[in-house]
Sequence to fold (210 residues):
Amino acid sequence: MKFLLYILLLLPAFLSAQTVEIKDLKDGDLIFQDMDCGPLCDAIEAVTEGYKGADFSHMGLVFHRNDTLYILEAAGSAVRLNTLEKFSKNTSKPMLVGRLKNKYRKLIPDAIVFSIKQLGVPYDDEYVYNNGAYYCSELIYDAFMFANGGKPFFTLYPMTYKQPGTNEFFPAWVDYYNDINEPIPEGQPGCNPGGISTSDKIDILGSLQF
Fold:
């Protein structure tokens, strides 16, 4: 009995250590990244907790076209289709794969159609929800809300740009918003890769194996 209990306690850690091969990726899978982008990524990760405490600052949606695997993502200057190879170069750390639970997978085709229609929509440099531009998780949020008949599927939370346990903004965010001449949107609704990775609507399959 004690041995069985020990195995059950270890099971979550064992599952999180599983790997997913590229050939096993399916349309609609979500790939989460801990990007190597310096202080801004560090600030994003400091105020959001991902799956089992992991740090995530970017995400994309898997899409196959003519036997080629692409990632639909809001990155760079606009929403775009990227190859997995290029997408993977954002980070030197393992990428985690999430998959919608079976009862929600019917939403995937419409979420992909929505995302493709957003190709070329500008990147949301202000990180403000519903302003005609998209950051990475915002695109995913709207895609699945569209597929869900206009009802929220993932969750929006009040966003914070302050250092945990203080009332002080991260210096990186102060500099960033000063540079774009916009106020820090503290408390406004938004989403982030870490939050989506903890959603009860998806299963984390493991890290992507190249």
